[in-house]
Amino acid sequence: MAGLFDGKNVWVTGAGKGIGYATALAFHQQGATVTGLDLTFDGAYPFATERVDIADAGQVAAVCATLTARSRLDVLVNAAGILRMGATDELSQADWQQTFAVNVGGAFNVYQHVMPLFRAQQSGAIVTVASDAAHTPRMGMSAYGASKAALKSLTLTVGLELAPFGVRVNLVSPGSTDTDMQRTLWVTEDAEQRRIAGFAEQFKLGIPLGKIAKPYEIANTILFLASDQASHITLQDIVIDGGSTLGA
Description:
alpha/beta; 8 helices
């Protein structure tokens, strides 16, 4: 897919690390002009970066105004997200509210500013990163799973509203992926292999493909959905979990 996005302008939220970084890098390598948005960036990046708290509507409005004054927007990828663990009745109000503020509210804030742009130009693509936790409940992940399920519903509604204007909107729902977020869940030396085999007390299921996903594997699907190769695909949620949810 060399040069697949030559001349295209792409924004990626959550581009500081993890799936967001891998996605921004992949678009950059395919010729796109990429701007990564995140709360923090550590070190040098091969694409442009903008620091923004995605949960702050005012900050999002300001950075969107700055970026749209420079150039058009062809592809938006929403990859920003946080994980707060805890049993439902033990989770703090702050963790619950912050999870929704970032995972759902952040996407909402961006959608409000880019939807008029996409309508006006009658083209573009959005790919939003949800989670297989929105498909299969996980013990101790009520805030994360619920926020990703809400994000899915929000995104599909945006896709329905933009479809008459030729704008495609899809989701990817990764399973366990080798990121900093995932590694916070691995508290023993054999945690990765135990996740692959399955945690009966939490997940019930393991990973049939027998491996944890790499961020680039998620990025590859995002690039496909954003490309002209997926020109008739919209309102879809592609689960990328090695078969963990058994197609649920």
